[in-house]
Amino acid sequence: MPNKPAKYCIKMYALVDSKSFYVLNLEVYVGLQPEGPFRLSNKPEDIVLRLVEPIRNSSRNVTFANWFSGYPLLGTIQATVGTIRKNKKEIPPQLLACQNREAKSSQCAFQQDVTLISYIPKKGKNVLLISTLHHGKQWRCIWLTEISRTATDGKDTDTSSDEVLKPEMITFYNSTKDGVDIVDELSGSYIMFLGTVKNGHLLYFFLLLNSAGINAMVIYNANHPEANVKRIFFLETIRIISD
């Protein structure tokens, strides 16, 4: 993808644990296939349902980017949070307007087990999120203290005057949204030979090996927390053993 850290002209979708960065599932985008068993729907909601199949009914939350999010998907997964594009027909017009709204303000809409929130991080900017996790009694706001940088010594200082009310849905989304991007960066940091690989099948193979290396390190560190092995050392150890 042009706007991603690794640019190999390959489009892949991934389901990644947001804390450990373990890659649970991958799907390669191959376009529209001929009629037959390998022809699958490329609709965002269908891609998500295939990706989350290994964790279905496990009470895990799934955090989406706005390309995947939409109202039809929410009823098929137990707990979801995601940004949503402003052109979705299910968004009330009142939540789209931001001209006369104050910075750090929020508006919410509720329907059955779904919460839609419009948050104004700064004047004139509107962020929309939709969730089935934050609903009813679970939905609330929490106080956060923003950090500002001083102009004198360049150090971060805690400014209590900058306390703002921010929806928990926003803070939860921000804390869980970067799993795929971090795995992408890890892949780009250590993967080898991709620049010279011309065969598409071999390129896919190397990418899968790299994901397997990430997962192996996650499992090793989970079983040996005292070791805290860095990835470059872990991969070097694997290479030596394989040699």
UniProtKB/TrEMBL annotation:
InterPro entries per the UniProt record, alphabetical: PGBD (IPR029526)
Organism: Aromia moschata
PANTHER family according to UniProt: DUAL SPECIFICITY PHOSPHATASE 26 (PTHR46599:SF6), PIGGYBAC TRANSPOSABLE ELEMENT-DERIVED PROTEIN 4 (PTHR46599)
One family name in Pfam for this protein: DDE_Tnp_1_7
Keyword annotations: Membrane, Transmembrane, Transmembrane helix
Ranges for domain PiggyBac transposable element-derived protein: 1-217
Listed name of the protein: PiggyBac transposable element-derived protein domain-containing protein
Stretches that traverse the bilayer: 202-222
